[in-house]
Every structure is written in C-alpha cells, then in structure tokens.
Amino acid sequence: MIAQFINSTLRKVPAWPLYVLGAVPPAWLFYSGVTGGLGVDPVKEMEHQMGLWGLWLIIAGLCVTPLRRWGNINLMKFRRPIGILTFFYIAGHLLIWLVLDVQIPSQILADIIKRPYVTIGMGAFVLMIPLVVTSNNWSVRKLGAAKWQKLHKLTYLAAILGGLHFVWLVKGWQIEPMIYTAVIVGLVALRWIPKRKRVAVAA
Amino acid sequence: AMLLAGRGRAETGDLVPNSYEEITAYNNFYEFGTGKEDPTANAGAMSTEPWSIKVDGIVDKPGDYAFGELIEGLTIEERIYRFRCVEAWSMVVPWNGFELADLLAKVGVQSGAKYVAFETAVLPDVMPGVRRGVLDFPYVEGLRLDEAMHPLTLMATGIYGKPMPNQNGAPIRLVVPWKYGFKSIKSIVRITLTDKEPPTSWNKANAREYGFYSNVNPEVNHPRWSQASERPIGGGIFAKRIPTLMFNGYEEEVASLYEGMDLSKSF
Predict the structure, then answer these.
(1) Angstrom distances, CA of residue B119 to CA of A130, B51, B140, B142, B192
(2) What is the mean pLDDT of chain A?
(3) How close A89 comes to chain B (CA, Å)?
C-alpha cells in the first residue's frame, strides 16, 4: 500500500529537477570554500565532501533495482539522473584533487601510478566514462537493450572500486569507509540472488 | 601571500605561525576519532588534573610524577617550529615548552639507556577512538637517545602562551620538528628509558609505510602520499603547494645524527 502510494506520487514527479538540485551542493561547497566556511583545510573538505556525495549517489543508484524487486517501489526514471550526477560529482572530486590539492602535473602522474588508492580511484572514474556517454536514449537504441545493460554492469565494478578507494586512502582501518564498501558490495551481491522461478502450483 | 613568503624563508627562522584557531581545530589524535575535527569535538571530556607521568626503565629517579612535580624547575620557552604531517600538510606552531634533555637530566639517564619510549593516556570512557580500536592503543612512540637529547626536541605544555589544549595533547606532549607529526606523541603518561628500539604505533600498524625514524624527507617516497611537497594550512582554497625541505628545514641542526645511515632504508 505504501509502495503503491509512493509509486503513484512519484509518477507525477518529473526527473529533470534532480539535475538542478544536484548542482546545489557543489555550488554551495565552492562558495563556502571561497568564503572561509569550510574550516581550516577547505581543499580537503571540498575534496572529501564531493567524494562522499559520489558514494551516496552511487549507493542510491544501486538501490533502485532491489527496491523494485523486493519493495515494489519503482524509481526507474530517476536512475539515469542519479547515475549522471554520480559521474559529475566524481569528476568534481577529481578536479579538486588535480587543481587545488596536488597541483603539480608530475606529481599527479606519479600519484596515479604509484599510489594504489589513487590508481583504483582513477580506474573507477575511467570506468564511468562509457557509462555517462551512453546514458541517453539514442545509445540504448543504438546498442540494443541487452548490450547496453551488459555495458552498464560496469557500474558494479566502479562502485566497488570507489569504496575500496576510500578504505585504502585513510590511515589505519577506519570504520566509515568499510561501512560504505560493505553497503556497496551488499547491494551489488543482491543482483546475484536468483529470481524465483514461477512454478505452477499443482492443483 | 605574506604568509607563504614567510614560510618559504623558513631557513632564516623567519616563520609566520598559523592562527590559534587553525592549530587547535585541525588535529590528528585518533584516540578521539579519525576526523580532523573529532579531537576538538571530543577531547574536552578528558580531565588533565590530576595528571601523573610514570618515569621508568634505565633512570636514576624512576617513579610516578605529578605533572607539576615533573616540570618544576624547568625553563619554559617559546619555540616556533614548522610542523609537517605525513599526510603532506603543514603548519607553523608557536609551542611553549622545555627541552626533553632537561627533563632527562632531571630524572637521571643511566649509562646503558639507548632509547626513550613514550606512551599516551588510554581513557576509553572519554576516547571514542580507543573504544573503536582504530589503532592498537596505548599509542606508543620512541626516539633514539641522541635524538631525544637534541636541543630542538621539545616537551610542549602550551601553544601561544596558553596551556596545551586537550586536542593538541594536554597537558604535555613531545615535539620533534624534523620528524613527521605522528612522532610527536600527545598526552604523555609514561616515559621509559630502554636499551632496545621501542615499538611505535604506526610502525606496528603498517611497517611498510611508517618506519621508526620517520624523518621528514622529500626524497623518500611514501606509498600513500608523495613527500616531495606539502600544502600549508591556512592559505585558503587556492594556496600553492610548497616544496618539502629535508628534515623539515632542520637539516643543518640534525643531519649529523644520521651520518652514515641509509635514510631510504632507515626511513
């Protein structure tokens, strides 16, 4: 009943305002950073916040299918904007790291090659590029639904790498990044639960 | 820009300290949580009165000293030091404290002692990081005796003329300005003179990344952060990175301690 109510309500809500809403946090972060509202180390704060938002969004995106399967809640039309926003948040996260944090090109390259957490973070970002490029109806038609779906399974790998990137970059074994990673791995694992075959009940 | 210029000319001793707010709002003190703001938020619950420090090992006058008793008669002076975190950020801090050498002279180091080991308080009731077991607590650190006796090595009891804030390691902490910040152990409750290299917390947690010496060294790569340059805290979002100096700029004073050592092996 709740599911029905949610579905009928959301049916009336368009998906495009998500893009507008999605632009608010980065804009606010940048404004706060420039005006001194992000504490003592605004660069790290911006970088970290954008990374966290990226993780929240990717987790939100991974929830869509399980919610439909087990909760009968249909958020399908929001999945594309969530995915595209994830890409832009991670791109912002990367840009802050490149321009405001590391700054020095030779050091950027050295970091990507030598530091495993940077390497897997970059890997996750690169995996997201074909996903964002094909996040449009034209690409779905061009590739065909089956091929498109197969390609977009890269999301799972990108998400897990994103979680590991967080686990690996902190000093010591910290609980927060491990929770994010566990949630992501759990959500991905749900995809492998076989669908129950509809067995005809013998009369 | 003035601030950066000042820091760039560090060799001349012309250092511009960070603000009190910056120094006391941005800390690594994992007993109180792993976030930079956690120590400021949580450390207020720690009571530092009374505070007792055990001095033991190869010393003339071992015992449990009250904080006041231990520092009695020692000259507190201001030392403006560069502070370089292994995470590749840096600050300049005006510490108040006395030389560790003076304290060691007071308790009487016996021949045979080769190292000084330190231990941080473990107060699970007020330390959420201890309850979570982020590291193997108590936090322990150590110095070779000649490093400990070096005139730059400070036992700090204050910042900007104020008593040491809890989040910065009240009531007393070590400051070794040519080493990465984590060597400068906080809220000390035990000082042990020993003849063996003592275990150190980050080395125990990850020996590949953190050595016993942990001298600031732009040439020795760290698997997690390049140590070639650093971000000075306090310059806003467009602050330029600055090159990291050998021994954090104290090369002239301390390089002789490591003569003949391969610093890429003894990192």
Answers:
(1) 52, 13, 5, 9, 9
(2) 93
(3) 18
